[in-house]
Amino acid sequence: MTASTTWPQPDPATRRWLPETSTPLDQARVASLLAAEWERFTASTAASGAHNEQASKSLPLGVTSSFQHWDPYPISIASARGAWLTDVDGRRLLDLSMGFGAMLVGHLNPVVIEEVQKALTDVGTLFVTPSPTATEVAERFQRRFGLDMLRFTNSGTESLMYAVRAARAFTGRKAIIKIEGGYHGGYDALQVSVKPGLDEIGPADAPTPQVPFDVEAGTVYVVPYNDLDRLTAILDAHGSEIAAMVLEPVLENIAIVVPDEGYLAGVRAACDAHGVVLIFDEVKTGLTAGYAGASQRLGIKPDLVTLAKSIGGGFPLAAFGGRKEVMEVVVDGRMAHFGTYNGNPLVMAAAKAVDEICTHEALDAAEKINIGTLDAVDEIIAEFKLPAHTVALGVKGCITWSPTPVRNYRDYKATDFQVAELSWLWGVNRGILTPPGLDEQWLVSLAHTQTEMDVLVSDFRELAEALRA
Fold first, then answer.
1. pLDDT tens-digit profile of 420-460?
2. Which of 33, 228, 409, 442 has CB atoms 3.0–4.6 Å from 96's, for a disulfide?
3. Distance (Å, rounded) from C-alpha 338 to C-alpha 318?
C-alpha cells in the first residue's frame, strides 16, 4: 500500500509524518496479543484492583473524573516525582500523560514547590479580595500570550463557559459553532457532538449535532475540522444569530489533528466577515505548544483564548482573555464573572513559578527531545511497514494507527482502535503510562530526558516486532 500524496499539506508550524508504504496488520494476531496483555495487566496490578473496589463504594466508578476509569479497573497512583509515578503495587511508571499538560514542568517541580511554600507560610491561601499576586501573574500572562485583558478561573470548563458567555454578551447573539469531535469541558453548550457514534450525526459533509439527553445546549451548529466550505455555508445561512465559534486550533481530544495549511486563516476571515467572536480553546495546548501557545505559534490571533493545565504547575488554575473590546463586557456589567477561588495566592504562586521556568530555551529543549523521539518512531514504522503515522505539536506527540492522515473526526473514527488499545496497554504493562483512551498522546515535560524517551522508542520497537512476528 502506498500513501497518497494528494492530501492538503499541514500547517507548517506543526509536524505530521506519513509512511511511504505500509502493510495491513494481521487482526487475529492483534486480538491474540491484546488478550495476553490484559491477562498480564490483571496479574501485575492486584493492589490497583483492590483499591478500585474500595474506592467504588464512595466514588462512582472509584474515580474522581470519569475519564480516569477503564475496565476492568485503572491503575492507582501513590506518588510522583519528576517524570515518574509509583503505583499502589509499588511499580515505577514513566509518566507520559503528565495530566494532559498540567504537569509540563514535572511532578513536584522544586521551583513551584518553593514558591507555593512561601505562599503557605508568608502570604496566605485565600483572601477573596484584590491582591498584588494576581495582578503580577495577570501582567505576566498578558505579555506572554498577547492578551489585552484576562480573568482567572479554576478549570478549563469554567474558562470556556465564560468565554462563550462573553461572546454572547458582546454580540447580542446566542448560537455558537463548534467542531465535530471537539471536547471543551463540561459546559452544556459545548457537550454537543464530542465523540458521537457515526449513526447519530448525519453525513460527513453536513453533520448534524448530537446532543446528550442530560444536556441543555441551546443552538449549536457543528462543522467538520479542516472544512472551510461547510463553515462558510453555516455562516452564510445563520451568521446573524451566531455569537462565537469555538475550536482547539489543533485538536487534541482525538489524538493530535493538525490544521491544513491556511485553514485557520480561513476560519479567522470567515468569522470576521460575519461578526462572529473566534474563541481558541488552548486548555490542552497552551505552553505545551510553545512559549506563547498555539495561537502565536500558528500565527492566528483569536478574539478570546482559554488557558488551563500547563499554566498552573499542577494546581487548579485557568484563565480566559483576549481583545479589550470583548473583555469590556465584564467591565460594564453586560456579563458578570464570579469565583471565590479565582486568582487565589496559592495558585498564583505556582503560576509565577511556571512562567519563570518555561523559558524559550527550556521549551525548545523539550521540543527537541520530542522531535528526536518522533524521528526514531518514524524509522520503526517504516522498517516494519506499519499502517501508522506520527503527529506532533510542540512537546506533544502521538502515533495514529492509520497510514493516511487524520484531518477530522470522521477520519479518526476510521483508525484502527484495536491496535491502538494494544499499543497503549503494551506500554502500561512495561512501565509507560499514556492517557487511557484509544487516541493516546505523549508529553515531553521539562523533567523528561532523551534517555527516558528512549524507553518509549524501545517499547514501540518491541511492539512492532510482536505485531510482525
1. 999 999 999 999 999 876 777 999 999 999 999 999 999 99
2. 442
3. 14
Q: Which residues does the annotation mark as catalytic?
A: 183, 281, 309
What pLDDT does residue 435 have? 84
**Backbone dihedral angles phi then psi of residue 15, each to the nearest 5 degrees:** -130, 125
Rounded to 10 degrees, the C-alpha dihedral 310/186/319/95 comes to: -10
Contact present, 235 and 268 (Cβ < 8 Å): no
Distance separating alpha carbons of residues 325 and 302, to the nearest angstrom:
13
DSSP state of 430: T
Residue 86's SS3 state is strand
Task: Decide: pTM greater than 0.90.
Answer: yes
Share of the chain above pLDDT 70, in %: 99
What lies within 8 Å, CB to CB, of 441 at 6+ separation is: 252, 255, 256, 396, 397, 398, 434, 435
Q: Using CA atoms, how far apart are residues 423 and 20, in angstroms rounded to an integer?
A: 22
Distance CA 446, CA 287 (A): 11
The CA distance from 236 to 203, in Å, is 20
Grid cell, residue 190, equals 459545548
Residue 2 clears pLDDT 80, i.e. is over it: no
